[in-house]
Specification:
Chain lengths: ~450, ~130
């Protein structure tokens, strides 16, 4: 009996040990790539307790140089000799850049205090370094990582905008998201031997997911720059709770919601088709208060929704784009393929979809001459062979749905979108074309409607 | 039990803040609200020095699960519906913040204040019948 307990205890302890060591790889050796400006890449196992001086001692012989002649660059900064590796925020399989100096005199002028690039970029107002230190564990960038398929903590990285080499040092730190997202804002110096820019170049910023082991140069993540750490303890606009991570809209008031309320808000507006199709930002929404200049301009923020909801977002966005471009959507149930054809053409073939041929005007099967009334039930009398009319009526695929739609909805008088009135007054506002109409009269909403049957 | 939705958490907070710091003449039947968080009965007294002085009104707030991203449905209920150009005899209120101008930054408290000020600024008791004649 005691053996069994010992065995179980041992297993649990081992699992726990595995768990804790995988959570904290810094306890052991760290596998790091060191890229040299000569073109070689070395893989080295570094002790996280080492400082940069130790790294230089290892690297220098491989570059054929003295340790003094070597510069170690990481995330746009030259690392000072005294910096300890575990303070650098290096993940497993990160890349450091080693450069052999051509001229030692350059070095003296370039020597500056080395603050590591891990701080949150804050718009307009900088957060002081002291505050940064206090919130060290909390200050992060958020990214959408396609490898993890989720929102993750991100790391800001820098490379030369010309040759894409990471052996690049910046002249100043980025002060705002504008500096990071827009090209040619922060200047610097590329150390890559064959780079055409060399002495003066522009920094290019990009992000990596901090939560999986880097899978190479192209493993980059999209910054979700509207997400911020709630260092200022701002309550959510909707639920009024103070959450750690918040969504900050771009309006002048910079309205704040928590992530949960952002999701609720976005899904509500999506289902009601209240997103707008903006020429420069795409299919998007504004801040819940409806402020000016608050449209979300990076659609990856909608990746915060579930996979199904994001697919719905993509589908609706495509449909709206096609309709705006003068196209039509195939009316066959289950198809809905978007088709863009000449405006004068009424006979439309669903070429890339189901092959259905239909009339642009009435969206029924194609016909010659004027459109019939909408109700085009197939007359059972026309069928040659003998069937039981009652059974044939019951055996119609999806007929119940069609009937339900016909009974419970009325078409918008302008765009014909089937509309259901679930409650409230008779004043309808079309969710697709924003036409104001009257549920009773099925024409444009008027003062007469307001006076006689506003509430039924 | 499932944790409360954002909408429920918001209503809980609004309820306690309305009970702690109600606008003048406003009170809420908290016990009834605890039964149905999405249906509130709010008592409102006509403000002193206005046409509605000495009158008592009852407001009903109905919240959908979309609250606060959608406005609450607010109507006067009970025996005494105020006679006011923007209030229908069935209790419906014509107030822009209850429809087009609603924003999730508004609250039960701010809606109550708007309704109080709408009543208080009235110079002459007239019903909405005048609209119907147009």
């Amino acid at each position: 009996m005691a053996d069994i307990f010992n065995f179980i205890f041992g297993v649990v302890r081992n699992i726990f040990r595995m768990f804790s060591s995988s959570r904290n790889p810094l306890n052991n050796s760290l596998n790091i790539f060191i890229k040299c400006n000569t073109g070689n890449t070395l893989t080295v196992g570094l002790d996280p307790k080492w400082d940069i001086k130790d790294v230089k001692n290892i690297i220098a012989p491989k570059l054929g140089a003295n340790p003094d002649e070597v510069k170690i660059i990481f995330a746009g900064k030259e690392l000072d000799d005294s910096i300890i590796i575990e303070d650098c925020d290096l993940g497993e399989q990160s890349t450091l850049h080693a450069v052999k100096l051509k001229d030692l005199s350059i070095r003296a002028t370039k020597q500056k205090k080395c603050s590591l690039l891990r701080e949150t970029v804050e718009d307009e107002d900088e957060i002081t370094l002291l505050q940064e230190k206090n919130n060290r564990d909390k200050s992060h960038f958020y990214v959408y990582c396609s490898v993890c398929a989720a929102m993750k903590i991100g790391k800001l990285r820098i490379r030369c905008s010309k040759c894409k080499s990471g052996a690049f040092t910046v002249d100043t730190d980025p002060k705002s998201w504008n500096d990071v997202l827009k090209p040619n804002k922060i200047s610097g110096h590329c150390e890559q031997n064959d780079c055409p820019d060399g002495v003066f170049g522009w920094a290019q910023f990009y992000f990596r997911c901090a939560e999986h082991i880097c899978q190479g140069e192209n493993d980059i993540a999209v910054p979700l720059y509207l997400l911020k750490n709630n260092l200022r303890k701002i309550p959510c606009l909707a639920c009024t709770e103070i959450k750690d991570i918040v969504f900050v809209f771009t309006c002048r008031e910079a309205h704040v919601t928590c992530l949960e309320c952002f999701r609720v808000y976005a899904v509500l507006r999506l289902r009601e088709r209240q997103f707008v199709l903006d020429d420069s930002f795409g299919y998007t929404i504004s801040c819940p208060v409806g402020c000016e200049n608050s449209l979300i301009d990076e659609c990856h923020h909608f990746k915060l929704l579930t996979k199904e909801q994001y697919e719905m977002y993509q589908k609706f966005a495509t449909e709206e784009y096609i309709l705006k471009a003068g196209g039509v959507l195939c009316p066959q149930p289950g198809c809905g393929e978007g088709i863009i054809v000449d405006l004068k053409c009424d006979k439309i073939v669903c070429v890339n979809g189901c092959g259905y041929v239909f009339c642009r005007k009435c969206l029924q099967g194609y016909h010659i001459g004027e459109c019939n009334s909408v109700d085009n039930n197939i007359s059972i009398d026309n069928i040659q062979h003998v069937t039981d009319p009652a059974k044939a009526l019951q055996a119609r695929w999806d007929e119940a749905t069609n009937v339900a739609i016909r009974v419970t909805t009325k078409p918008c008088p302008k765009c014909r979108t089937a509309t259901e009135r679930s409650g409230g007054c008779m004043h309808m506002i079309c969710t697709r074309c924003s036409f104001h109409w009257c549920w009773v009269c099925q024409i444009e909403w008027s003062r007469d409607c307001m006076g006689t049957h506003w509430f039924g | 039990m499932a944790s409360p939705s954002p909408s429920e958490r918001r209503l809980q907070k609004e309820l306690s803040s309305l009970m702690k710091d109600p606008p003048p003449g406003v009170s809420v039947d908290a016990n009834a609200v605890y039964q149905h968080l999405n249906l509130w009965n709010v008592h409102m007294k006509g403000a002193d020095g206005t046409l509605y002085q000495g009158e008592d009104f009852q407001l009903q707030f109905r919240f959908s699960s979309k609250y606060p991203f959608d406005s609450p449905e607010v109507t006067f209920v009970g025996d005494n519906i105020p006679i006011h150009p923007h209030v229908y005899s069935n209790g419906h209120i014509c107030l822009s913040i209850l429809t087009d101008d609603w924003s999730p930054a508004l609250s039960v408290q701010s809606v109550c204040l708007s309704i109080i000020s709408m009543l208080s600024s009235c110079k002459e008791k007239a019903s909405t019948l005048s609209i119907e004649k147009h």
